[in-house]
Amino acid sequence: MKALFANRVFRIVAFADLLQQLAIWVRNIALLFYVMEQTNNDPVAVSLLNVMEYAPIFLFSFIGGAFADRWNPKRTMIAGDLLSALSIGAILFFVLAGTWQAVFAATVVSAIVSQFSQPSSAVMFKRHVPEELLAPAISISQGIMSLFIIVGPVIGTLIYSSLGLTFSLAVLIVLFLTAAAVQFFLPPSPRSPERSSPPILNDMKDGFRYIRSHRNLIIIAITFACIGLGSGLVRPLDIYIVTERLQLDKESVQWFYALSGAGMLIGGVAAAILGPKINPRVAIFTGIAFLSFSMIVEALSVWVYLTAAMRFMVGVMTAFMQIVLGAIMMKLVEEAYIGRVNGTITPLLMAGTLIGSALAGPLMKSITLVPVYGLSAAIVLIAAFASLSMKFGGGSAAKADQSGTHSA
To answer: 198-402 has which CATH code?
Structure first.
C-alpha cells in the first residue's frame, strides 16, 4: 500500500476523484432541494431531475469508454472538469436571471462529461500504475465513492441549508476548477496510435453477439435490467419516504444516504472476505430478494429506526451482491471482451433506471407512494428469481455457461 501512495499518478487521480465526488454530491443535494422548493415538492419535477442525471449515463456510457481509448486521457480528464465548471457557471447566470429551470441542464452536462472523463481515469491507472497495484488502486477509488455516499449528502445539505443555491453553485465551480488544475500535474499521456479509429459500431455488435452466446451473461443482463427498472421507480421517491411516511424535514434525507453508504462500505469488506467462500447463486439471489423485501418494508414503515435499519442493510447487501456479480463477470468473460460486455450490460441497468425514474413521478401522482414501491419490489423480485437460472460448473468459465448459440 505504501508503494501505491508513492505513485504520483495515483495520488493525483485519487485527489481529483475526491474533489469530483464532493462536487457531485453538493450538486445532487442542492438541485434536489431547490427543485422541490420551486415546484412545491412536485414528484414529477423530482423524477425529471433523476432522468436528466441517468439519461446521459445510458446514452454515453459505452461511447465514452470507447473514446477513452482513442483520446489523450489527461486532456480528456482536464477538459471534462473545465466543461463541468463552465456549465455550472452558465447555470448560475440563468438562476440569477430568474430562469430556475436551467438547473436541469447542469445535471445533463455534468453527467455527459463524466462518461468521458471517468473511463480516462482508468486508462491513466492502466498506463502508470504497476499491475500488482491496480486492484488496490481501483478498490480505493471505489471506497472514495462509498465514503461520499456517507458524507456527501451531509456536506451538501449543510452548504445548501446554510448558504443557499447560489453559494452551492459557486462551490461547485471552485471544486471542478481545482480538480482540473490538479490534473495538469499528470504526466503526458498521448493516445495509442493503434487505437486512433476503432470501429465503435462493430465493437457494439461484437459485445451483443458475445452476450447472446453465453447463457449466464444473458441472465445477468436480464437481472440488471429488472434491478434498474425497479430501483429507478423508487430512486426519485426516497425523499417522499422521509417527508410523507416518516414526517421528517426533507433535509433529513442526508442521514439515510449516509446509512446506505456506511452499509456499502461494510458490504464491500464482507464481500472481499466472504465472497469466495459463498455459493454465488445464493449470494446473488439473497441480495436481490432482500432488496425487494426492503422496498416493501420502507414503503409501509412509519418508524424512523426501522426505515434506517432497512436502508443500512440495503447498502450492505447491495455492495455484497454487486462485488460478487462483478467477480462472476470477470470469470465468465474472456479478456478481449471485458470492456465491450461491460459497455453493453451496464447501459441495460441505466436504461431500466432511466425508464423507472421517468415513470416514478406520474405513477406516484396516480396510484400514490406505497403502491409504486410495491410495483418496484415485484420487478426486483423477478430479477432475483431470474438469477437462480445461472449455472456454475467446473472447467473453463467461458465454456461452462456457453449456450452454443454463436451467431455471426
So the answer is: 1.20.1250.20
pLDDT of residue 343: 63
- Please indicate whether the domains covering 7-186 and 198-402 agree at the CATH topology level: yes
Is 306 or 17 the better-scoring residue by pLDDT? 306
Domain boundaries, the chain: 7-186, 198-402
For 363-387, what is each residue's pLDDT tens digit? 888 888 889 999 999 999 998 898 8
Measured CA to CA in angstroms, residue 40 lies from 44, 46, 156 at distances of 11, 11, 20
Structural class in CATH, domain 7-186: mainly alpha
Q: How many CB atoms lie within 10 A of CB 366?
A: 9
DSSP 3-state percent helix, strand, coil across the chain (nearest 5): 85, 0, 15
- What is the number of alpha carbons within 13 Å of residue 132 lying toward its C-beta? 3
> The whole model's pTM is what?
0.64
The string of pLDDT tens digits covering residues 185-212 is 888 766 555 444 546 566 666 667 777 8
Residue with cell 396516480: 366
Give SS3 for 390.
coil
142-177 in b/e burial notation, b at 16+ Cβ within 10 A?
A: bbbbbbbbbbbbbbbbebbbeeebeebbebbbebbb
The full 3-state SS of 130-195, as one line of letters, equals: CHHHHHHHHHHHHHHHHHHHHHHHHHHHHHHHHHHHHHHHHHHHHHHHHHHHHHCCCCCCCCCHHH
Q: Which three cell numbers stand for residue 332?
A: 465468465
Residue 252's SS3 state is helix
Q: Judging by beta carbons within 10 Å of its beta carbon (0-12, 13-18, 19+), is residue 196 exposed, middle or buried?
A: exposed
